[in-house]
Predict the structure.
Amino acid sequence: MSFIDRHLGPRDTDLESMLSTVGYDSLGDLVDAVVPSSIRMDSALNLPQALSERDAQEKLAGYASQNIVKAQMIGAGYYDAITPPVLRRNILEAPGWYTSYTPYQAEISQGRLEALLNFQNTVMELTGLEVANASLLDESTAVAEAATMMKRSNRKVKNGKFAIDSRCLPQTLSVVRGRAEALGIDFVVTDFADGLPEGDLFGIILAYPGHDGEVRDIKPLVDEAKERNALVTVNADLLALTLLKSPGEMGADIVVGNTQRFGLPLWYGGPHAAYMAVHSGQQRNMPGRLVGVSQDATGRPGYRLALQTREQHIRREKATSNICTAQALLAITAGAYAVYHGPEGLKKIAETLHENASRVAVALSGAGLKLVHESFFDTVAFDVDGKADEYVKKASDAGINIRKINDDRISISVGESHDDTVLTALVEAFGGKLPESGKYEIASDLLRTDEYMQHPVFHLYRSETSMMRYLRQLSDKDLALDRTMIPLGSCTMKLNAAAEMEPISWPEFATIHPLAPADQTKGWKSLIDELSDWLVAITGYDAISLQPNSGASGEYAGLRAIRAYHEDNGDTQRSIVLIPMSAHGTNAASAALAGLDVAGVATAEDGSIDVEDLKAKIEKYGDKIAGIMITYPSTHGVFEDKVVEVCKLVHEAGGQVYVDGANLNAQMGLAQPGQFGGDVSHLNLHKTFSIPHGGGGPGVGPVAVGAHLEKYLPGDGYLADEEGKLEGASLPISQAMFGSAGVLPITWMYIAMSGAEGLKSASEYAILNANYIARELGEKFPVLYTGPGGLVAHECILDLRELTAQSGVTAEDVCKRLMDYGFHAPTLAFPVPGTLMVEPTESESKAELDRFITAMSTIFDEIKYVADGNISVEDSVLRNAPHTVEVVSADEWDRKYPRSEAAFPVPSLHRNKYFTPIGRIDGANGDRNFVCECPPMEAFDIEVTEAS
C-alpha cells in the first residue's frame, strides 16, 4: 500500500456507504458541490511524484548525509546538550506525548499538565521568582515579551523608554527592535558600563551571563533601576542559575531565557522551550500559558490551565500576547530533564561545564590568546588581533565549530558532551596544552547559597526504570491520538506518521548548530529550499519564509510585511486591519502586536462575511485600510462563495488581503489562496502538514507572500549590528533564521510521500468525513452553518443552544461526558458560545467516526432524559461527568443513575475503557486561589485524603 492509503482513514469499502449518507454518488461530485467553482484549480499541483515511505526516507537520508556533524562550541544561544535516551524514547518519540493537544480539557490532560508544572517549578526555583509560565517560543521573543510586559505593567513610569543590554544575543536585539518599532516603544541599547542611561525608564533588560560569556554583578544596576522606578528583566541562562545567585534574590521583576540546554537537541535552531518567570501578582500580565492547581468535584487536587481570560481567544487585540502555540513538548522534555537529574545532577553538570571552560581558558591563554573576561560560566572569549577566521578554521579542521564574534574576537562554549578528547583537540589546534584543572573561579559573592528544587518530584526518579515508569504513568492519564480521535474544530488533529517522525532524531539533523558554516549545512539547505518550493506550489504564492515558529508568529510576520509595504509606498496612514468577528483571536492580537488597529466586520446570518457591512467599513475607513484578515474556509466551517468578491473589494480600496491558512487542510489541490485573491497567508505545518501538536507546541507557521511582499519577509537576526539593526533585510520575528527547523523533516516527508494526488485526496477525505458526521448528527444537534446543499467544508459546528434551553445541559457538560466514552471533546464555545466545533480530519476511519456518532447520539438521549423531566440536570450523569474509577468503584453509590451508565454507557467500553484520573475540575476555584507550585505528595495520597 502507498503512504496515502495508510494515511487516509476510510477504506474504499466504506466510501460508497459514506457518500450515500451524505447524498452523493462520488467523492468528486461531493467536492464539486462543496468548493466554489470560482476558486477551483484547473490543474494538478506542481509537485514530484509521491514516494514510498522507504524511498522518501532514503532521499531524506541523502540530504542528512550532506550535513557535517562536528563538536558544536559556537554557543550564541544554542549549546551542546545530551538528551537522555529515556527522555528521547519516552517523550520525544512517544505518540502518547507528541500527538496530544493543548490541555484545555484538564481532566484528560493531567499527565502533561503535571509535566508542564514540573517545568514551571524548575524555572521558578532557579530564577528565584514565584510564578513561571509553561513556555514561550524562543529566547529572543521571550525578551521581547518581557519588554512589552514591563511597558504595560509599570504604573509609575508611563511614557519612558526601556534600556536593553548590548550583551544580549544579536538575534535578541534585532527581534526586540522589530517588536518595539512596530509598537512605537522607545528604547536604547547600552552596555550599562556607566550605569543606567539618562531619562525616564520604565524598564531595563540585563544579560546574565552576556552572549560572550561574561558574568558580572548586576545587583548595582538592579538597585539603581529600583531607585528610578524602572522594572528589571534579567535574560538568564537557566543552567548557570544552578551556580549563580538567582535574579529573584537580586531584585529582578521578570526573568526570561531558554531551556534548550536542558536536554534538547540543537535542531538547526529549534524548536526549544523558552521561559518567563515573574513575581506573584504579575501573572495576569504574563504572556503564554500557565498551569495552576485547583481541585475536582470531590476535592482532590488537579491541574488546569489557569487564568485563560488573559489569552487572545477571549481578549482579541487586548490580550497580553498573540501566543497560541508555544513549546509544550519541549518544555515537558526540559522539565523531565530537571526531574531526572535533580538539583545535585544539574549543579554537577554546570560545575563540569565551568571547570572545562576554565581549563580551556588556561590552555589558550598559555598559547598566546588574550582572555577577554576572567568571570564566566561556560563560554570564554578571546581577542585574536584580526585572526578570528584563522582560528575558526583551525578549530574546524580539528572537528570543532567555534564562534567568530568579529574579526578580532572569538568565543568558545563548552557543552555537556565535550569530554577531554574534544577539549584536547581544540586547545592543541591552537598550540596549547589542556591542563588537569582550571584556575578561574566565579566570585563567591555571585554564587547562590540557597537550596532549590527541594520538592520530592526532583528527587524520586534517578534510575532509568523509575523515570520510564513515571513518564508512562503520566502519559497513561491522558487522551492523545494514540488512543482516540481528537475531533477539535480549527485544530486539524491528523495522523503524525511514524515514518515522518523518525528523521528528526537522526544526528545529522538533530546535532547541527544553526550558525554552523554553510559548507556543513548543505543538507539542511536542500531540505529547506525544496520544502519552500513545495509550499509555494501548494499555496499559489511566490515566496515563503519558514522562520515563524507558530501560527501566530506567521500572522505577525505577514502583518508586518503588509505594514512595511504600505509605508514604502508612502501610505503611512494605512493602519487599520478589517477582521471578521468570527475570526480566531490570534488575528486581532497579532494585528495589535504589529502596531495596527482592528475594525471588526459583521457576520451574516449564514456565517459568512457580511459583504454589505464590509462595504460600509471600507466606505468609513477609506485610505486608512491596510488590509483584511480572513480565514478560508471560514472559521464557521464553510467555503464562502463570496471570497473572490471580498478580496476584490479590499484590493480596490488599496488594502492587502491576508488569508489565514489555519484551514488549508480543506484546500490542498483544490484551491490556492495566492491565486483567488490572497496577498499573504501563514500556514500551520502543525495542522495541515502533519507536524504533531505536542500538547501545545511545537508549531511552525510559515508565511507565504506574493512577489510584491517578498522583500518584507523576516531576515536573519544573527547578522544584526550592535544596535540590533539589519542592513538590506527586514527585522526577524523569531530567534533562528529557520525557526523550528528541527521539525521541518516531518512536513517534508508528508509532502514527499503524498504527492499532488495524495494531498488532494487528504483534503477530499477531510471534507467527506466532516460531512458524514454533520449528516449523521444533524437531526439531533443542528449544524449551525452550512453552504449550498447543506454541506460543510472540513469541520462543522453542532448547535446545542436549544437543547441547553430545554434541559439545562451545557456544551461543557457534553465535553465532560464524552470523556466517559473515551473521547477528547470537540472545540468548545468557539467560534460561537454554546456550540461544539468538530473536525475529524482525513485520518479517521469510518469505524472511529461511527464510534463518535454513537457516543454523541447516546449523549443526546441522556440530554432528552433530563429535558423530559426524568431527572434534574444537577443529578444527571452529564453534570457529574467525568466519572473516575474511584467514584464508580466506591462501596457506596448514592447517585440517581446506575454505575454502569456512568462508566459503560455503550457496550464497546467494556473492551476498551479509559477513566479520567480526576473528576470535573473546578476552574473558578483555581483562578480565585491561584497556585502554580507542585502540590506536596500528601495531596495525592488516598489514605491521607480519606483520613482528613
Q: What stands out?
A: The first strand starts at residue 71 and ends at 73. The mean pLDDT is 95.
